């Protein structure tokens, strides 16, 4: 258990060495969570999730999709509600707009979304994060 603690401490310190961190040790993620009245199963245009992981307060998403002629747009959407469980759960959806791109090249995109808004409504230490069309449960852990 002690080794796990030091490994996690080292990993979070390493992330802050290679990425921009603020005073609280949060990584400054370039993309923001969009909160609104969204259908949880509306993914927009098709894409494939290659890899999804938590890095500090960021959700790292590597995705592939068809396109190449237009610049595609992605949003990480949340309806603002946490499921009443212990720990609470947030259900997120990655939404994609390909702007009717006629090209068929396989494009890859890596994004990091800031999940800090998830901890605003309440002060829990962990929130279970479910991403639509992704089978692995993710844990967003922080100090309240």
Low-confidence stretches: 1-19
SSE topology string: HEEEEEEEE
Q: Would you state the CATH class?
A: Mainly Beta
Counted up, domains total 1
Oligomerization state: single chain
Shape: elongated
Q: What would CATH call the architecture?
A: Sandwich
Q: Describe the biggest sheet? A: 8 strands, mixed
* CATH homology superfamily name: NigD-like, C-terminal beta sandwich domain
Strand order, biggest sheet?
A: 2-3-6-1-4-5-7-8
Number of helices: 1
Average pLDDT value? 83
Summary of the model, kept short:
The chain is mainly β and 144 residues long. The chain has a single domain (2-141), classed as NigD-like, C-terminal beta sandwich domain (Immunoglobulin-like, Sandwich), CATH 2.60.40.2370.
Write the layout of secondary structure elements.
Layout: H1 2-18, E1 31-35, E2 48-55, E3 58-67, E4 73-78, E5 89-97, E6 105-114, E7 126-131, E8 138-141
Parallel strand pairs: 1-4, 1-6, 5-7
Antiparallel strand pairs: 2-3, 3-6, 4-5, 7-8
Written overview of the protein:
The chain has 144 residues and is mainly β. The chain has one helix and eight strands, in the order αββββββββ. The protein has one helix at residues 2-18; strands at residues 31-35, 48-55, 58-67, 73-78, 89-97, 105-114, 126-131, 138-141. Strands 2-3-6-1-4-5-7-8 form an eight-stranded mixed β-sheet, with no helix packed on it. A hairpin with a 6-residue loop joins β7 and β8 (138-141). The radius of gyration is 16 Å and the shape is elongated. Mean pLDDT is 83; it is low at 1-19.
